[in-house]
Amino acid sequence: MNTDSDTPTDEHHRDRSGNAPGELGFSGCLEELDRIVRGLETDSVDVDELSETVARAADLVEWCRTRLGDTRTRLEEVLPRLELADAPEPEPDASDR
């Protein structure tokens, strides 16, 4: 069973602290992705850790994309209910009087 913390799968690479992407949350994943990109741009990632770092980045991107998709789906379900709540009451027909 998937939960927010393991979306989309349980098979995520953990960071050095042992955190899976879902444990960081969306903002935390974006921050970590930013650190990874900066490290790759400045060549501060050791070649021995490169494949692990890139795999971690792929997991973070996948988790964020799935989270965004789930959020979009949820909004598509909720927004129509809000629109119905804001709709004016229909005027009674002359036959209803």
Domain module count = 1
- What does the average pLDDT come to? 80
Helix/sheet category: mainly alpha
Distance between the termini: 55 Å
Report the count of strand segments: 0
Strand fraction equals under 5%
Order of helices and strands: HH
The radius of gyration is 22 Å
Unreliable stretches: 1-10
What is the count of helical runs? 2
Residue share in helix: 55-70%
Largest sheet: none
Task: Describe, in plain words, how this protein is organized in 3D.
The protein has 97 residues and is mostly helical. It has one domain (1-85). Helix content is 60%, strand content 0%. It starts with 20 loop residues before the first helix and ends in an 11-residue tail after the last helix. Residues 1-10 have low confidence and may be disordered.
Features:
single chain; 97 residues; mainly alpha; 2 helices; rod-shaped; disordered N terminus
In short, what is this structure?
The chain has 97 residues and is mainly alpha-helical.
